[in-house]
Structures are given as C-alpha cells and as structure tokens.
Amino acid sequence: MNPFKNTYTSHKSDEELIQGTLAGNKTSLTQLIERHQPFIYNLAWKMTGSIADAEDLTQETLIKIISNLGTFKQESSFRTWAYRIAKNQFLNNQKKPSNIFAKSFDELGERLDQTPNIDLTENEIAEQTDSIREVRLTCLSGMLLCLTQEQRMIYIIGEIMGADHNIGSEIMEISKDNFRMKLSKARKDLYNFMLNKCGLVNKANPCRCHKKVSFATKHGMVDAKNLLFNRKEYSTFKLQLEPDADFLVEESELKYAELHQGHSYRTQFDKKNFLVKLLEDANWRSKLNLN
After folding, report:
1. Which of 263, 16, 4 is nearest to 140 (CA)?
2. Domains detected in the chain
3. Residue 131 predicted with pLDDT over 90
C-alpha cells in the first residue's frame, strides 16, 4: 500500500485507526504506526543517507504525529497532514548529512575523476556482485545529497516514490505548477550530472561501478561484510511502491530515474523500533489513554 498514490485501500482507513487510537485502542495505534513507518523511514533514509539519522528522524516524526493526533481536524487527508509534519521535520533538521562523497555535484565529479579505475576479470565481477551494487547505490545516495534539502524531498516524493503533482504539492504546501517546476529542476540537475559522469547513463563516460569497487573497498568506502544499502532483506522502491506518477519525462531521462527507483527500500523493522517502544512506557500509555 503506497500512501503517495492518489488512492490506497486496506481493511481499515487511517481515520478509523485514528479514532481507535484516540479511544485508547493499542492495536489501532500499532497498525497506524506500521502502515506509515516504512515510508517515513525510507524517505528519511534517502534524505540523510544515514541509517542512524533516519531512525532518529523517523522516531521524532512519529512521536510528533501521534502526540498531535487530537488536533487532526480531517480538513485534509491524514496522509497529507502526517507527511506535512514529516516534511517540516526533515527540512528543519539541522544535522549535516554524513556524506562521504561531496557537498556539491562539482566536488562529487572531481572525487569520482580522482578515483582510479581498476579493471576486474569477468570472474572477479561475478564474485563481487554485491559490493559492486553497493558502490552504485552509495554513489546514487551521494548524488541525492548534492541536491538542496527541498530538491531532495521533492525528487524523492515525486520521482522515486511516485507521488503525482496533486499529492506532492499538498505535502510540500506549494502550488501544483511550482511542484512540477521544482521537480523538473531537480531532475535536470541529477540528469546533467549523470549524463556527464555516469557510465550507466552514458556509455561514453569512463566511470563504471565495477572499476571503482577495488578502490572503494580498500579505502573503507564499502564494507563487503557489512553492506549499508545492499542487504538481502531489502527490497527496492520500484518493487514496493509501483510508482504511477502522472509526470511525463523525456526518454533520455528514464534510465537515471530507473536507477534511483532501484535504490534500496527497507521493509522489515524490529518490533522494538520507534514508537512501538512507547507502547511499553507507562507515561506515554497514560498520555494516549491506551488500553
């Protein structure tokens, strides 16, 4: 169920779960958390490029959403209301991304140019498949972090998660035309960089993920035994969200968009993560009047 689509269905609506939560029903709160936690977490992860920062932002955001449920007047959908809170929380986050690459596209390009290309045999490529994909996903994450915070948010919501201009503009609290314009600018910035640097988008470029993996592994940029983005339990945005945004993009832009939609998407969470911890806290149980 993708909350960024125009419509989404389940056994109970958000509004029914909210009413149950406000009535003190623990199950309703748990279901509401489990429904929206994956999307908020994965949005935070792509915004920060850091698992630890994403967990902190997700917990802070969910606490703010749940503690303010009583103020939700149903003048908009819960989706719009909740993700506006997430948007404000993320854009007001003052913590600098732990970007191991660069702070701008120019700097990232220079870093990639300075990283030596080391050829691998076909057998070596096959043996290091996971590490090579980790290099690609790490590089894609670094590219996102070269966008401004607002551009990053709009690109993740509109392009990677597939929200249309109606939902995207509501969440960002800007006009539909402005949302389209800002998304187009973010697309162009990413595409121009990848067109000039990435061999996956433009075969004329010398940069190839498998040629960078030896250097990245040797210098600790990729830990083959502790992959950050490429774990077996992870899925992808494309598989999880089935985006159906109504934006038409140029054919030449489809390749890089597919690369970003293929970025890792965390689907499984420890039951002790985030707000579920609060269900065991007597103080919060009292505040939320939970049964």
Report:
1. 263
2. 14-288 (1.20.140.160)
3. yes
CB-based burial of residue 243 (10 Å sphere; 0-12 exposed, 13-18 middle, 19+ buried)?
buried
Angstrom distance (rounded) from CA 65 to CA 53? 18
Provide the mean pLDDT of the chain: 83
Average pLDDT over residues 124-144: 92
Segment 225-254, tens digit of pLDDT: 888 888 888 888 878 776 544 443 444 445
Query: Residue 235: beta bridge partners?
Result: 265
d(CA 131, CA 210): 9
Q: How much is the pLDDT for 100? A: 57
Among residues 155, 140, 152, 47, the alpha carbon closest in space to that of 96 is found at 47
CB 182 within 8 A of CB 163: no
Give the DSSP per-residue string, 38-99.
Answer: HHHHHHHHHHHS-HHHHHHHHHHHHHHHHHTGGG--SSS-HHHHHHHHHHHHHHT--SPP--
| CA–CA distance, 155 with 95 (Å, rounded to integer) | 20
Which helix (H) or strand (E) segment holds residue 265: the answer is strand 264-265
Specify the pLDDT at position 223: 85
Question: Can you give the pLDDT at residue 52?
Answer: 87
Q: Can you tell me the distance from the alpha carbon of 223 to that of 183, in angstroms, rounded to the nearest whole number?
A: 33
